[in-house]
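Predict the 3D structure for this chain.
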Amino acid sequence: MNIKEYYDIAVVGAGPGGYSVALRASQLGKSVLLVDRRPTPGGVCLHEGCIPSRALLRVADTVRRTRRAADLGFFRKDAVAGITRSDAIDMEKTNAYKQGIVDAMISGLGGVLASRGVRYVQAEARVMKPGTVELHPAGGEQGPDALDEPVEIRAEDIVLATGSHANELESVPVSHRRILDSTDALDLGLVPASALILGSGDVALEFAGIWAPLGTRVTLVERGERILRSATKRVSATVSRNLRQAGVALVTQAQILSASEDENTATLRYRDADGQVRSLSADVLLPAVGRMPNTGMDWLADLGVALGAEPGEQGRILTDAVGRTNVPGIWAVGDVTPGKQLAHRAYAQGLVIAETIAGVETTPLDDRTVPATTYGLAENCSVGYTADEARADARFADVAEDSYPMAGNACAAMTGQAGIVTLVSGRLVPDRGGDDTGHANTNAYGARAGERVLLGAQMAGPQTADLAAEAEELIGNRISIHDAARLVHPHPTISEALGEALLLADGRPLHAR
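Done. Predicted structure below.
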């Protein structure tokens, strides 16, 4: 095998984490090779995840708004019913619209990588030892950058960004016919009349938000006592209300037993909370029960990279705060590392790794302030601490939780959806050695020990995910509640709900009771 090229950095995997490393490192003068088995960069997020799902959610939201048009005086109800029937939706055009968005983003990303001098190669990569990567021709669809013969690459630093794949349930084998995975579900040629969705994480909730407005009878099946178990009870209740209002049936405390299919139907057997065995049938069945890191490669084990064994870390590559693994010269980013499996988290990790390798001063990612968001009918976001988490942390005292229901927000009322903003605040305890953001008992904006600051925000309802960035700024920079509450939000907007919640937390509510 010939040694063909030398690089400062080789990145294995071209999803958000991998390509963010490549873009920033090249900007800092490093020569970078970006390798992925796909013909084009972008990873699951761009090809089969965030972007195509958001495109279909945009279609679903358009249909949902049209269905409300009669209530707003635009059409007679019978006319609206005619144009929003599932059989009136041209899925060929809908899928073309979705793919057009994806293709435009892929083209734009490829252009940025090329302009930065990043070399993209379609290949299967095997990291043989620090500094050495074998590249082999990738199977499947071949792109213009496909490798046609094996080569060995040398690189001073190697970044592992191999991403994740959908978790599979042994009791629910995916057939790609009636029992689907999320990739299948994004490319259906017609709107299913009925659908069973297992789980209540972001993938499950977003597909419920795609299908229900298009006319599908959706049933969400969750093993826990409530949906969205990672969220607060108030957020879970608000999301449940919005889903039920849209016609989504919710089944909780369901122990999955088995799934089967015939030519026309998928059937799920489960045990309910009373121990009774029940069954549900639908046109399609989508297991959406989390994602697993792509760390099962033989070469990774041979390399000696340490994987986690604790809950939440199992099978994931362990790193320090800036992305170093236990093997010198080997780094890891994105879904293969412990923490939230989110594209925007991977972007931030990638910047830190690139800057650390380049010797540029950088700040490690604060995982606590990374927003977790879900879109569609179940839109919600969470940033920072919940009240229970903050009360369990000795660095905070006098922790309070204040909730502002969005029923009083005019713009939320216009959508016909329920909403809530919950803020968690507390005082910084002196002499506790700072917190997990690297802050000591003060910050650049003047929050001092003993001063009440914003510690967390949990929101659900229309457009609340768009409020996550503002909440993150306030939480991550430890802005005092009083200073945050004096800032003015434009009227009338959804963002006023956050402003009202801040005033409530500051002890001087305006429109809240």
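The two ends are 73 Å apart (CA to CA).
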